[in-house]
Design a protein that fits this description.
The complex is a heterotrimer of chains A (about 650), B (about 525) and C (about 260).
Chain A lengths: L1 H21 L2 H22 L7 E7 L2 E5 L3 H20 L6 H20 L3 H21 L7 H29 L7 H7 L2 H19 L8 H6 L3 H26 L5 H24 L3 H28 L3 H36 L9 H4 L2 H14 L6 H14 L7 H34 L11 H19 L1 H5 L3 H8 L8 E2 L2 E2 L18 H11 L1 H9 L19 H4 L3 H4 L1 H6 L1 H4 L1 E9 L6 E10 L2 H20 L8 H20 L1
Helix pairs in contact in A: 1-2, 1-4, 2-3, 2-4, 3-4, 3-10, 3-13, 3-18, 4-5, 4-10, 5-6, 5-28, 6-7, 6-8, 8-10, 10-12, 10-13, 11-12, 11-17, 12-13, 12-17, 13-15, 13-16, 13-18, 13-20, 15-17, 15-18, 16-17, 16-18
Chain B lengths: L25 E5 L5 H10 L3 E11 L2 E9 L6 E7 L4 E2 L8 H12 L3 E2 L41 E4 L5 E5 L11 E6 L3 E8 L7 H5 L8 H4 L7 H16 L5 H29 L3 H22 L8 E2 L2 E2 L7 H22 L2 H7 L7 H6 L5 H5 L6 H4 L20 H25 L15 E9 L2 E9 L5 E7 L1 H8 L7 E2 H11 L3 H5 L1
Parallel strand pairs in B: 1-4, 5-6
Antiparallel strand pairs in B: 2-3, 3-4, 8-9, 9-10, 10-16, 11-12, 13-14, 14-15
Helix pairs in contact in B: 5-6, 6-7, 6-13, 6-15, 7-8, 8-13, 13-15
Chain C lengths: L1 H10 L21 E4 L10 H5 L5 E3 L5 E4 L8 H5 L5 E6 L11 E2 L20 E7 L5 H8 L12 E3 L8 E5 L4 H12 L6 E5 L1 H5 L21 E3 L6 H11 L7 E2 L2 E2 L2
Chain lengths: ~650, ~525, ~260
């Protein structure tokens, strides 16, 4: 049943791509959304067991291609597709519907392949289709004048990753003589230690390029920032989840239990990524750039949990490994919903104000209230505020790293302690970030009159916001569908022990009893209790009715001031951190003063500022220079014609196929 | 621990005797508007400096501009009389400090200067409703120029302008302070541009003098700036005395020095307390304020007024002062305590750390914008009216003029510390050598005439230009207060600085708003 | 920093105990409003009225004087001009009154004692928002002195506050210049009730020397309802403290009908 649904989804997406090419955009949008719904239905049907393995009716490079969606794949795909469906239904805010829809269908098809394909060649093709789908979305929607540069930068880094994956697969496949994933675990175990480390690093680099691990996150702000929120909802949802699943399954299945060293490396690497991306997210003043850094941060948190899972496994603690892996899955599920909600809210802001800038713009007060509720729930989740899904998963992340004391080696224990500290910093910065996004970008007031956010976006954002809450409140129920996913991967039935009635616990003690564990939460109960807190101000309000009221304006030192000019800006909000972490941001502020010739008579101030990316100077600038040089050389080929780009993409596919055949 | 003394910034003092006495005090010359730019350039090239500009009605419907300038060392003041016939060029580009004076003339008399770089209102607010300029004779008597709230004129911000926050502060500000609005264009901490919006307290004091009795108007001069009461009264009286050509008895001249130095003393002690407050040195603040209170109580005991009011009159002092040994002892005690206090301040690393390199004022800006008093002397400009253009009994006394080069808040602090001691030394000398004689000589106001009076107030150079009419009444009184000059300079030390340093920097300037706004 | 602590400790307390016990008020030798002795007045002598720069002294048809201490700037010119000592220099500076009429000396007998304002609940602690509405900075200098160690206003439970939202009393100085009119009203408007207004200094009471003209007003009359008047130019810190304590019913009002200390 599930496989049929998946096949139908695939065909609908394929049809949507074709219709998009010939310009039937509305139908294509409907088909994309319908395909997404079918795929979600498949997840519902197949969880918690996963789909049955099938052999696709085609061979690639002389090998049969297997397809199976593991339960964790279904979980990540299902939650990733919720914002994707809404994004596809709403489509881009740019001019180029056709190109965007084509790219979206490619992304979805590619992601489906990444989730399910069990053959190296086919996987790489799907991987490339997914990457290029993103590029086609960005180039196709024609939101900015020249999306070329950031998209090229993104593609360049993704291709670095793709090549890394290819090499890793070749190293693994060389052992078995086949690209079928079934043989890779044995091949991985048979590899000599140094080669295994190389493969390991190659896999991290390959998938990290998509996840935005250090240093690859630097393509995020540019690429996301040249696209619409809908693009972001896809790329930060189903695509990101696919990449994470691929990383998790390759590292957990193919690489033998091994030494804890690699786990330590992965945890530290991911925590550092999380800190840096959280700090950068806080400084962004563009909705999409900010949210994209936040996506990289959340992916890094999930990778931290993955690293912890590997550490625990190396230490022979499968229960804790299972906990860590569950936590990663929970985290990305909540993230996909919440981030999708905010990306679509960004589209709403753009529709209302014509800009993606995080500035005070009276968006919320002019829009239908469910928009605000949805955005608030989504932002609260990303800020890890109770009772939202982000709070649950963030709490679980901390509970996981706190289990580090179970580890036997000092290095591993220390690593998780450091990770805890790093994640605490990340969480604090993320909190401030989403206060900024919601407080300035939506709640902020402005004198200018803006039109309300369109109804479709209101509905989508509200849906996603409620979905975030539903995920949290229904967590005791949802957890059950991960049972087999974790048991299958780490051989531990952790999940069953992570809940006692409506109460969530880390699931590590036995017997599990809320009375015997010092850590427990219950979003399901919180959602009942928290509104009770609102009674206090309500009581005050009622009590104050008996007194006479006199309203007087805000006192600004005796004069009325234009609140637009006197209110906090995105830059001043984040200035303190920017100054404190100046060694990371290396902030640059420049004020040019235009005078009449005498420096004392200033007429105009031209103010500019920037934060310098850490890797920009040392690592990427030469690369970018090279890419730009090549782009310059290839300018003759750049006709600006979408069909031409598509031809180029096709060519790249052929090249990859050719490479994998040799 | 104290910071090492930079060799360039050594305290320099030059005794008055090193400068030649000048015979004539003012050189007057008539000049045509078109000749002004070249004349100002020539003056600047010769090492001179513009002091002020003002307008007056030379005859009904006929305006006359007057420009006052200092020439080089030891030379008399230069006064240009410029009849307004046709277009008058703005001199702000040549001598930037004149920019504010020209704007004031435009506000009050309606005369526009050609090519003024900032052709906006200054002493009148943008929203002030006036049928004709207020000093135009056609202006209805006692008609208030009501003010409509209009956004202040500030430089336009371009580039990433939506990132720049405007922080309006005032005019009613925290603590007990004078009214004035400060606009900061800032980024949370970093100030990129600072605009003080002053003249909320403009009372039209110059106009209040007009038609008044010259002797009684001392009361008015004493109330232009409360903490500069004595200096204002002194400069005003000297202007009347200059117009009338009367001699002040010797004893009165010496007592005037004593009073002027008492005013400097309590102001500087207040300054130290305030500066310690902004650097959160609470005991230091308390001690500075306590010493200030001591001197104010000495003032009251000596003169009956804590602000040394109701004493000066054209021709001398209204009454003689009982300067017994108590005064000498009281001053000696203040000197002793102030010495301990200032040494302790100078030994506080946390205090000096916050002053050194804060709010640097370079010598050129100080000169161009007309910084005066301790502010200019902390930026290496060696000027002091007491020594350069002696009045009262200063010509007979050695006036030490402490000087610093660094131009930062610390230099301004050091100059004032040195002036406290120099001031007490000067007073002790006056008490020792005070001649006997009458405190007052008759000084009837002349029928018509002009007089210029000046004084080195605690905050810098103060000028009164007084014109009398045919009945011996005041026709025009122009007040150039030191804070008017120093407020013009101050913003240039704030642009591109830090919010944390702002209060310290402002305190280190020791500005008053009443004197500036008048 | 330890040095400062030690320094502070060795200096000891500098605060006066005044107005309690035998504390010093710190105003030795200070001249206050000249005191009027009508019995010394010569028939037809108008020297003091002519000398007064703010027209605080006016000659009546019956040869007596009307004196409005709310206009007196303590310049002492009348006392110097008076040939008979009818206007005599004095140390009468504690001139805080609740009603404007009490500042005016008239031949008629003194008016009955004014009703106390409802300040009972604030007797022990009062918060003040100060607004400079165009003063010469003399009043500010004395208000700042209130917090110096000698007067140490805090010991009396009286504080200055930054926000009018926390203030009980609006303390205004200056003749109210045109640009300050709106900010002053806005500050009053921002205060919660009950709220009171105090006019400090002759400028705020009547306009003083600066009142009138194109820029300055005539004090708070017609601008805000005033509950406490304190003329003086400037009133010294002790006078301000005494006026505040009088307002809080902690000391009696000294001046009634322009007569001091009755």
């Amino acid at each position: 049943m599930a496989n049929e649904l998946i096949a139908a989804a695939f065909l609908l997406w394929l049809a949507a791509a074709a219709l998009a090419l010939i310009g039937w955009a509305t139908i294509a949008r409907a088909l994309l959304a319908a395909g997404g719904l079918l795929a979600i239905a498949a997840a519902f049907v197949a969880l918690p067991a996963g789909t049955d393995a099938v052999i696709l009716p085609t061979t690639l490079a002389g090998e049969a291609v297997g397809f199976r969606l593991a339960p964790d794949a279904l979980w990540l795909m299902g939650f990733g597709l919720v914002p994707a469906i809404l994004a596809c239904a709403l489509s881009t805010t740019g001019q180029g519907q056709r190109g965007w829809l084509l790219g979206a269908s490619a992304s979805l098809i590619g992601a489906l392949g990444v989730f399910g394909l069990q053959n190296g060649t086919a996987f790489l093709v799907a991987w490339e289709v997914m990457s290029l789908g993103g590029a086609v979305m960005l180039l196709g929607e024609r939101l900015v004048q020249r999306p070329g540069r950031p998209v090229l930068f993104m593609l360049a880094l993704l291709e670095v990753g793709a090549v890394a994956l290819l090499v890793a697969f070749l190293l693994l496949g060389a052992k078995t003589g086949s690209f079928a994933f079934a043989g890779f675990p044995a091949a991985g175990a048979a590899l000599p230690e140094p080669v295994r480390v190389i493969v390991w690093l190659l896999l991290i680099a390959g998938f990290g390029a998509k996840l935005g691990l250090l240093p690859f996150y630097e393509w995020f702000p540019g690429a996301y920032g040249s696209g619409s929120g809908a693009t972001g909802a896809l790329m930060s949802g189903v695509v990101l989840n696919a990449a994470f699943f691929a990383l998790g399954r390759t590292l957990s299945e193919w690489m033998p239990t091994g030494t804890p060293g690699l786990g330590i490396f992965l945890v530290l690497f991911a925590v550092l990524s999380a800190i840096l991306t959280a700090l950068y997210a806080f400084q962004q003043e563009d909705w999409r750039a900010l949210l994209s850094f936040s996506s990289a941060e959340n992916a890094a948190i999930a990778v931290t949990a993955l690293g912890a899972a590997l550490l625990f496994r190396a230490d022979g603690a499968p229960v804790l490994s299972g906990l860590a892996w569950t936590v990663a899955l929970l985290h990305l599920a909540g993230h996909a919903l919440a981030k999708g909600g905010l990306f679509l809210a960004a589209d709403g802001v753009f529709r209302a104000t014509g800009s993606y800038a995080v500035v005070q713009g009276s968006v919320l007060r002019r829009s239908f209230w469910p928009f605000g509720v949805g955005a608030l729930f989504a932002a609260a989740s990303l800020a890890a505020m109770p009772p939202q899904a982000g709070f649950v998963s963030e709490w679980y992340v901390f509970q996981t790293v706190f289990q580090g004391f179970h580890l036997t080696t000092l290095g591993a224990r220390l690593t998780l302690a450091i990770a805890g500290a790093g994640l605490a910093l990340t969480a604090a910065v993320a909190f401030a970030t989403f206060v900024k996004v919601f407080g300035l970008g939506l709640l902020g007031r402005a004198a200018s009159r803006v039109p309300p956010v369109p109804g479709g976006i209101v509905a989508a954002v509200a849906t996603l916001g409620l979905a975030v809450l539903a995920l949290a409140v229904g967590m005791p129920h949802w957890l059950g569908s991960l049972d087999q996913a974790v048991a299958g991967r780490f051989g531990a039935d952790t999940v069953r022990n992570m809940q006692v009635g409506l109460v969530l616990v880390p699931g590590t003690g036995a017997p599990i009893d809320p009375a015997k564990t010092f850590a427990f939460i219950s979003p399901s109960l919180l959602v009942v209790v928290m509104p009770l807190l609102a009674l206090i101000p309500v009581i005050f309000l009622v009590l104050s009715r008996g007194f006479a009221h006199r309203r007087s304006a805000v006192w600004y030192g005796g004069l009325d001031h234009d609140p637009d000019r006197a209110s906090t800006t995105a830059l001043t909000f984040s200035n303190a951190l920017r100054t404190f972490y100046g060694f990371i941001y290396r902030p640059q502020v420049h004020t040019a003063r235009e005078t009449n010739g005498q420096r004392y008579f200033i007429r105009r101030l031209v103010f500019t500022h920037d934060v310098a990316p850490v890797f920009g100077r040392s690592l990427f600038r030469p690369t970018v220079a090279l890419v730009l040089f090549l782009a310059e050389r290839l300018r003759a080929l750049q006709s600006g014609n979408l069909n031409f780009y598509l031809a180029l993409i096709g060519l790249l596919l052929v090249v990859i196929l050719g490479l994998s055949l040799t | 621990m104290s910071a090492p003394e930079p060799p360039m910034d050594a305290l320099r003092e030059r005794p008055a005797a090193a400068r030649p006495r000048h015979a004539s005090r003012i050189e007057e010359a008539a000049i045509a508007p078109a000749a002004l730019p070249d004349a100002v350039r020539g003056l600047l090239d010769a090492g001179g400096r513009m002091q002020m500009a003002y307008a007056r009605w030379a005859a009904p419907g006929r305006l006359e501009l007057r420009y006052l300038a200092s020439q080089g060392d030891g030379q008399p003041f230069l006064l240009w009389r410029c009849p307004v016939d046709g277009e008058v060029p703005s001199l702000a580009d040549i001598a930037p400090l004149l920019g504010w004076y020209e704007r004031e003339i435009t506000d009050l008399y309606g005369l526009r200067f050609a090519d003024h770089p900032e052709p906006h209102r200054l002493v009148l607010h943008e929203g002030a409703d006036i049928p004709v300029p207020p000093l135009d004779p056609r202006y209805p008597a006692d008609r208030p120029a009501t003010v409509r709230p209009v956004p202040h004129r500030t430089p336009e911000v371009a580039g990433a302008e939506s990132d720049v926050q405007l922080l309006p502060y005032g005019p009613v500000r925290a603590d007990v302070v004078e009214s004035g609005e400060f606009l900061f264009f800032y980024l949370g901490e970093h100030i990129i541009h600072y605009h003080p919006q002053l003249f909320f307290k403009h009372r039209g004091m110059e106009q209040r003098f007009e038609g008044g009795d010259p002797a009684r108007a001392v009361v008015l001069a004493e109330r232009v700036s409360g903490v500069g009461s004595l200096a204002h009264a002194l400069a005003y009286c000297q202007a009347i005395e200059a117009a009338a050509g009367c001699e002040v008895p010797k004893r009165a001249g010496w007592l005037r020095v004593l009073l002027a130095e008492l005013e400097r003393l309590y102001n500087h002690l207040h300054y130290l307390g305030h500066l310690a407050d902004t650097t959160t040195l609470k005991v230091g603040q308390a001690e500075g304020r306590l010493l200030e209170e001591r001197v104010k109580q000495i003032n009251a005991r000596l003169t009956g007024s804590r602000f040394l009011r109701s004493l000066l009159v054209p021709g001398g002092l209204r009454r003689d002062l009982a300067v017994g040994p108590w005064l000498r002892d009281a001053l000696e005690r203040v000197r002793h305590e102030a010495a301990i206090y200032t040494r302790l301040l100078d030994d506080s690393g946390s205090f000096l750390d916050r002053l050194i390199t804060t709010g640097p004022l370079d010598r050129k800006t100080a000169f161009d914008q007309g910084a005066t008093g301790p502010i200019e002397r902390a930026s290496g400009l060696d000027r002091d009216l007491r020594r350069d253009h002696p009045y009262a009994a200063y010509g007979e006394l050695p006036v030490a003029v402490p000087l610093r080069e660094a131009g930062d808040a610390n230099a301004r602090f050091q100059v004032r510390v040195a002036e406290i001691d120099a001031s007490i030394v000067l007073m002790q000398r006056v008490l020792l050598l005070l001649p006997d004689g009458p405190p007052r000589a008759p000084c009837p106001p002349p029928q018509g005439g002009f007089g210029l009076g000046w004084a080195e107030s605690p905050r810098g150079s103060l000028f009164y230009a007084v014109h009398l009419d045919g009945d011996g009444r005041l026709a025009r009184v122009k007040i150039k207060s030191p804070s008017f000059s120093n407020w013009r300079v101050f913003p240039f030390t704030v642009h591109d600085s830090n919010m944390m340093d702002y209060a310290i920097n402002e305190a280190s300037f020791g500005l008053t708003i009443a004197g500036c706004d008048r | 920093m330890a040095l400062w602590t030690l320094f502070g400790l060795t200096r000891g307390s500098a605060s006066t105990r005044w107005p309690r016990g035998n504390g010093e008020d710190g105003q030795d030798g200070l001249l206050g409003m000249p005191r009027y002795h009508p019995e010394r007045c010569d028939e037809g002598c108008r020297a003091c009225a002519e000398a007064c720069p703010t027209h605080a002294i006016t000659m009546r048809d019956d040869g007596l004087l009307d004196i409005d201490y709310g206009r007196c700037v303590v310049c002492q010119l009348c006392a110097e001009a008076c040939p008979t000592g009818a206007m005599e220099a004095s140390q009468d500076w504690a001139f805080g009154v609740r009603r404007r009429e009490d500042l005016a000396w008239r031949a008629e007998p003194a008016s009955p004692a004014p009703a106390a304002a409802a300040t009972g609940a604030f007797k022990r602690s009062l918060h003040i928002r100060h607004v400079d509405a165009g003063s010469c900075n003399g009043c500010e200098s004395e208000l700042q002195a209130l917090n110096n160690p000698f007067y140490n206003l805090h010991r009396l439970g009286i504080f200055f506050t930054a926000s009018p939202r926390f203030a009980d009393l609006l303390l205004v100085t200056g003749p109210v210049t045109q640009p300050m009119l709106e900010p002053l009203r806005a500050t009053y408007e921002a205060m919660p009730e009950p709220r009171w207004v105090m006019a400090v200094g002759t400028c705020a009471v009547s306009g003083g020397v600066a009142g009138g003209g194109y820029a300055a007003g005539h004090g708070l009359k017609g601008v805000l309802p005033v509950d406490l008047y304190l003329p003086g130019c400037p009133p010294n810190p002790a006078a301000i403290i005494e006026a505040l304590l009088m307002f809080l019913d902690r000391v009696p009002q000294r001046v009634r009908g322009g007569r001091y200390g009755e």
